[in-house]
Amino acid sequence: MTMLPLNRRRLLISGSALLAAPLLMRVSPAAAASLTAGFIYVGPRDDFGYNQSHAEGAAALKAMDGITVLEEENVPESNDVVKSMESMIQLDDASLLFPTSFGYYNPFVKETAADYPDVQFRHCGGLWSEADPKNAGSYFGYIGTAQYLSGIVAGHQTKSKRLGFVAAKPIPQVLMNINAFTLGAKSVDPEITTQVIFTGDWAQPVKEAEATNALIDQGADVLTCHVDSPKVFVQTAAGRGAFVCGYHTSQAPLAPEHYLTGAEWNWSTVYKMFAEKALAGGALPNFVRGGLVEGFVKTSPYGPAVSEAARNQTDTVKAEVMKGGFAVIKGPLKDNKGNEVVAAGKAYPETAVELESMDYLVEGVLGSTS
Amino acid sequence: MNADLGLWAVPLAVLGGMLRVSTPFLFVSLGECVTEKSGRINLGLEGTLVFGAMAGYGGAYLTGSPWLGVLAAGLFGVLFGLLHGFLCSLPKVNDIAVGIALMLLGTGLAFFFGKPLIQPAAPMLPAIPLGAWSDVPQVRAALEVSPLFVIGLLIAIALLFVFKRTKIGLVLRMVGDSADAARAMGYPILPVRIGATAFGGFMAGVAGAYLSLYYPGSWNEAISSGQGLIAVALVIFARWNPLACFGAALLFGGAGALGPALQSVGVTEGYYLFYAAPYVLTLLILFFTSSRTKALEGAPRELSITK
Fold first, then answer.
1. Which key words tag this protein in UniProt (chain B) (predicted)?
2. Does B297 touch chain A (CB under 8 A)?
């Protein structure tokens, strides 16, 4: 008994019509230019976060003459990135590649760079060393100092003397941000503490929202985060009436009243530098790093809630930073277990290599690295 | 000003987590419960959930009404359910394989059409302030309940009644328990199964809309993180009983809130372990409730996993 006229042919006909729809929306890439640069992102490029910060840098290149920009998003940190790079090189003649996620480098970028010696690879994360292929390289920004400035603003804003930090994983860069944020706040009032919650991974929207709620329940009234996409964090915190400091890019449009300031990447500086050198036919540097001074990172404009006193102190410290050589991590400094981690009289400016193996949380941070 | 709750914050956060996080589990598992009662398994609900999250967010953004968004998510869910239902009605088509294919199709289409929706902010669903009696802000925040949660509870009770006391429920269970008996009685098997799968799709779509329009309340590609798959497993865990589905959803919601809550009161060591709590809990419950004789009690006999 057939109640419904079902058969394979009808299903295939209607199904294929549906599947063809996306093809109509494809736009053919622009015609050849003298340089083709390829960007690869680990997530969506408009995530209000890490990937968007790189995509904004890529957008700055699109405005330059003689450059074609290719982009691919949602590329996992696996052999998939090799396929993406090879396709950009072989099908689109890309000669400059920017695989932007930390986990792309070893072994994928290293091996592909060895296979294609004529193509330049520059990876975000600062992992390149002399032993690696000469057509590969690294760039990274010292964003911890910008977090220190956010901490000063947060220190002025908090009434409860408790700050909150939603973090993904306890790796050195994240720990540096937590410590710098806390030290900035403590420079305003040494009583201030920062409660940190680790969610365990870079993109966990439900856990991020739960963590934000838990921090606010514990009395935190100014919060910041280090996750891939701060959108959920900012909306949840602002929805509960807490103030937020942003990260990666500006999230001010999501919470105009509750957004104080933020630590942002400014990759367009780096990408323009590489592209101009490549267009001129010059050699590209293998190892590039910079902070606020070099314009690799920036701070968001102050939100309407930031007080005059907070603006003044932050601007003063920022002017100090702009002179160069400013050290956020300096002795005497104890970790939150009471051990001395930096001896008195010792200071590590942001360029110090010791900071890249940071494995402690400073005094005033409530939380643990494991 | 927030009151200092000390360790009381943990049970409060777990309660809040139960009310906030459980709803998607509840809707997906209730829908899947109906589908499985008819004798089919739809593993593709994870894809439907993600597509529902995207469609709900897009619908709310374009129309300006979050409830129209929920409706749109449900209707797209119906489409996915119908697709699964029709495909599995073809001879010699395996429902589990089709489900996996639809899971990939749903997430892929959601990512494709959802691209322009990551940035804009859609209107959110309202909340019912059940904690308005309290002057402790944490209690008020924990007891903010979505209307969808209440609707989910009502649907769970209604389904229990429908399964046990109505003719529709009887036909559904007969089709799921013995296709031969249903055929002998003259009941249409395929339409019942297709209808049950469409209902499951509708519920999964609404669950997706809850994710993007209420909590965490944003559309992005990591929004579900596997909740649709867990919910399908919850149905088996709940022995195909709608009220048990409700309990299982609460359990998973609360267990998920445990990790962040413990860290916030200063229990900071070993948080990866706390994040595994829901899964450890499942293993323990399954271990202690397992029985050699009653393993398949309540299981529809036509399911491909029990046949």
1. Cell membrane, Membrane, Transmembrane, Transmembrane helix
2. no
Q: Residue A68: is its pLDDT beyond 80?
A: yes
- A24 touching chain B per CB within 8 A: no
Considering only CA atoms, which of A175, A182, A178, A190 is closest in space to residue A154?
Answer: A182
Asked if residue B300 belongs to a domain, the reply is no
Cβ-based contacts of B142 with chain A (< 8 Å): 217
Identical fold, A35-141 and A144-264+298-366: yes
Q: Is B288 on the interface with A (CB under 8 A)?
A: no
Tally of domains in chain B: 1
> Residue A95: helix, strand or coil by DSSP?
coil
Interface residue B59 vs chain A (CB under 8 A): no
Scanning A168-207 for CB atoms below 8 A from B yields 195-200, 203-207
**Residue B295 domain-assigned?**
no
Q: Is A281 on the interface with B (CB under 8 A)?
A: no
Shortest CA gap A156–chain B (Å): 17
Q: Which residues of A touch B79 (CB under 8 A)?
A: none
- Tell me if the domain spanning A35-141 has CATH number 2.60.40.290: no
A5 in B contact zone (CB under 8 Å): no
Give the span between the Cα atoms of A304 and A320, in whole angstroms. Answer: 24
In chain A, where the domains are located: 35-141, 144-264+298-366
Q: Is residue B251 part of a domain?
A: yes
Q: Is A26 on the interface with B (CB under 8 A)?
A: no
pLDDT tens, B196-253?
Answer: 999 999 999 999 999 999 988 888 888 887 889 889 888 988 889 999 999 999 988 8
Q: Work out the average pLDDT over B104-117.
A: 92
Strands A193-198 and A365-366: parallel
Provide ipTM, 2 decimals: 0.85
Residue linked to tokens 């695989």: A99
Question: Residues of A numbered 45-64 whose beta carbons fall under 8 angstroms of chain B's beta carbons: which are they?
Answer: 46-48
Task: Name residue, tokens 């003298």.
Answer: A34
Instruction: Give me the pLDDT at residue A30, please.
Output: 43
CA–CA distance, A316 with A301 (Å, rounded to integer):
15
The answer for B 66-85 residues in CB contact with A (under 8 A) is none
Selected from 3.40.50.2300, 3.40.50.150, 3.40.50.170, 3.40.50.300, the CATH number assigned to the domain covering A144-264+298-366 reads: 3.40.50.2300
Per-residue confidence (pLDDT) for residue B5, from 0 to 100: 67
> What percentage of residues in chain A have a pLDDT greater than 70?
92
Q: Do B263 and A367 touch (CB under 8 A)?
A: yes
* Chain A residues in contact with B20 (beta carbon < 8 A): 209-210, 213
CA separation for the pair A13, A27 (Å, rounded): 25
**Is there a domain that residue B296 lies in?**
no
What is the C-alpha radius of gyration for chain B, rounded to an integer number of angstroms?
A: 20
Put simply, the chain B residues between 129 and 158 with a CB less than 8 A from any chain A CB are 138, 141-142
Contacts of B12 in chain A (CB under 8 A): 217
CB-neighbour burial class of residue B148 (10 A; exposed 0-12, middle 13-18, buried 19+): buried
Q: Quote the pLDDT of residue A335.
A: 94
Q: Assign residue B180 the CATH number of its domain.
A: 1.10.3470
CB-count exposure of residue B75 (10 Å: 0-12, 13-18, 19+): middle
pLDDT band (50, 70, 90) for residue B265 = confident
Does residue A153 contact residue A302 with C-beta atoms inside 8 Å?
Answer: yes
Nearest to A209 among B216, B265, B266 (CB): B216
Q: Could you list the residue range(s) of the whole structural domain that residue B123 is in?
A: 6-289
- Worst-scoring range by mean pLDDT, A67-76, A291-300, B217-226? B217-226
